[in-house]
């Protein structure tokens, strides 16, 4: 293939790759709003740095800087070429700007590189007080006080008559988690069904009509569907552009071949005349040799043209096969994801049924157990969150539905009240 075709093809692929990377970065749904979240000790961040290479016309990743870094006890992270940077209290966007600026300054770059900072892992939360297993636990999105307590094994009760109440709370916490996961899976199932049908809009499933955050779940899945569809369409367009480019090359080579064939006919006629004159002794042998050389040169050029045409047609055939594989892979992945989602839903429905049965049993047994409580007292559970927002830790009153943020300490206390 000529160099100009290879260069064009390479640039098409490179631009497609950059488009894929930018699309994924812009459409990915963060766990927390990046513009609001402030980094803290034990947060793990993922840094990516890239720079534009004008001589090559490509975006180059800086592998030496890109990677995961943990905010240390001092509130700083240490990066290659830059050194220690204060991270605690800054947003990921502020960190990215500072990294790009320091790189430009330290390396004396003409233009500022592109840097991005994402949260790879949030700092843990901590459970303290009357929980079954106090300690640190990984932060999860949409975490509430009740979900956090369920991570620690639920509430700790010292009275034997209240053991079933603890079982009820544990099962109730599991139900909250299961219901949230079930809603997410139903939204995913609706999105996959829409993709397989080729529709443009996800219809609201009946199972989600009464779920409070149903619209948000559908919007999230719709954004993911658009991102995946855009990437698929861009891959198809890249292959179509490549085939169009190769077809244009084939047509150009065929026209060139026609021109060379006409020249060959002219040269062969001239050679035949010279040969006839040479046989009659009317032409020099050098003229005969020159005619033969011109004929051989044109025939060689024709062979090169035919070889290039054949190579371009083979590449067109390979691009057609790549397009078929891409379409088959798209359909196969949707089908596989649908099967996995349906299996997860079936498993989750069984877990929900089991939790409901445990809750019903705990409620009946707990009411019966209160008859044998000699103290005649009930338990009042209080929750509080200790949170440091940059101006020192503060205690905030909370309940079971209060959202939890990374680094929070959830304090649980139980008080016995007279009935």
Automatic annotation (TrEMBL):
Residues 236-270, 309-358 form a coiled coil. Keywords: Coiled coil, Signal. Residues 34-119 form the Polysaccharide export protein N-terminal domain. InterPro entries: HH_AprE-like, Poly_export, Poly_export_N. Residues 178-356 form the AprE-like long alpha-helical hairpin domain. It comes from the Bacteria. This is Polysaccharide biosynthesis/export family protein. It comes from Rhizobium helianthi.
